Structures are given as C-alpha cells and as structure tokens.
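Section 5: illustrative case.
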C-alpha cells in the first residue's frame, strides 16, 4: 500500500477529517475531532502512526520487529509507527481499522450516534 492508497482508505471511513495541525508535512486523520492516524509526507521510509491497544501494541512490535515500532513522537504505550511499504496491505488496513475503532469507542455516546448517521 502506498501513501495515496492509505489516504483513500482513511478518508473513506465515517466522520473523518484530514488536516495539517502540526506542520505542512504531517497529515492527520481525525474521527469526530480525535486523531487516529498521522502520516509524514516527507519521512522515508513512509510511515504512519496508529493508535493501538497497549497489550496488542507490544505483541505487534514483537511479531513485526523493525516494521512496527513504538510511536514516533507519540505515547509509546498507545501508539505504533508502521513502515507502510514493509507490511502487507491486509495487515495495514486491519491496524487502521483497530485505531479508528479504538478512538470511536472512546467518543461520547452522542458522537457515536452521530457517526452512525453518516
């Protein structure tokens, strides 16, 4: 999966916005105003930061050693950095879905209900 495919996958989800809140090279995807994915447009190899359940994060880092790393400039407990060219598109989409679902699960019931209406 390349960066354009990753972007298309993220923006196809319900309640998504994309913005550059930090600088002009870090694209951030939010669901109902909460971050679930960050992509550097200039860093090589291409990577994405994704939210992850803490126990699963550790497990993934062991399974995909050198491909899934502790979150770069993020909480190492709750975020992973994934080198997107070095992982299968199937695994990457599962990780994006997990990140999205984690953030949605923490939204207020009102916002979760609004998401259902999109």
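Designed sequence:
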């Amino acid at each position: 999966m390349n960066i354009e495919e990753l972007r298309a996958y993220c923006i196809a989800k319900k309640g998504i916005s994309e913005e550059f809140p930090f600088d002009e090279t870090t694209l951030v995807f939010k669901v109902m105003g909460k971050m679930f994915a960050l992509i550097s447009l200039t860093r090589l190899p291409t990577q994405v930061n994704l939210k992850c359940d803490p126990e699963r994060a550790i497990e993934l880092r062991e399974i995909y050693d050198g491909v899934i790393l502790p979150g770069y400039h993020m909480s190492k407990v709750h975020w992973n950095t994934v080198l997107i060219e070095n992982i299968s598109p199937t695994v990457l989409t599962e990780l994006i879905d997990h990140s999205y679902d984690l953030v949605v699960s923490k939204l207020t019931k009102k916002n979760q209900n609004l998401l259902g209406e999109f």
